[in-house]
Amino acid sequence: MRDLGGLRGRSVATFAALTLPRPGGVQSQEGRGLLGLRSVPTVDDVSLTPRQVELADAALRIVARQGMRAVTFRSVAAESGWSLGAVQKAFATKVDLHAAMFARLRGSVGPAPTHEPGRPTLHAWLVELVASVLPLDERRRDLELQGAAFAELAAHDPEIAGVIAVDDRRLLGLLEGLVRRGQAEGEIDGSLRADAVAWAVLAILQGAASQLLYDPRTESEVRELVSPALAGILHWSG
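Predicted structure:
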C-alpha cells in the first residue's frame, strides 16, 4: 500500500496543516510552490478505505498523546474499538499503517492568516502566520506532535525524508519570493540574500514550534518575542 511518491504536491505545516494561495506578484522558482512549515505531502492520489481512515486517525490520536512508539496494532485496535484482526486485515504491515497516518496528517486542515501572503507587509503577515500556526491550542499542539513524529521517522526513512525535503524546498521558494517582493517594494533591504532570509524565517518558526511543546507560552507572549525577532531577520545588515 505504501506509495509515498503519490503523496507529493501541496504544502502543509506539520503544526497546522497550513495551505496558502499563491500571492499575486510572486513568481515561484522551478520545483517550488506554496508556503507551509516543516511540511508533509499531499494525499490527493492516495486511496484509503473508510476503515483505514478510521484506524489511521486513531493511530494519530495515540501519537498526539503518547508518541509514535506507542502505536501498535493492539493499541490502534483498543483506541478505535475494532478488533486486532480487523487492524491487521486493514494494514498488512506497520509500514502501511504509517503511510496511511502520513496521508491523513497531510489531509488535516488548520488555521491560516486571512490576508494574502505578504500583506499588508511581510513582517505583519509573518507575525500573523506565527499566531495562526504555532501550537498555542490543543488542536495545533496535536498537529505539531504528529508532524514532529514523522520528522523523526524521516531521519531513518529515505522515502519520507525525500517527500518532506522536496516540499520544504517548495515552501522556501514561495517565502523567498515574498522576500524579493518586499525588497522590490522597499520594505526589506535589497542587499539581503532572499534565500538566506527565507531559511532564517523558516528556521525560527520551526524552532519556536518545537520549543512550545515543552515550554508553553501565551499567544501574546509569543507575539512579543517573535515580532522583533522577525523584524531583525528582515532588516538585518552585517
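Summary: Residues 4-45+109-234 form a domain with the Tetracycline Repressor; domain 2 fold (CATH 1.10.357).
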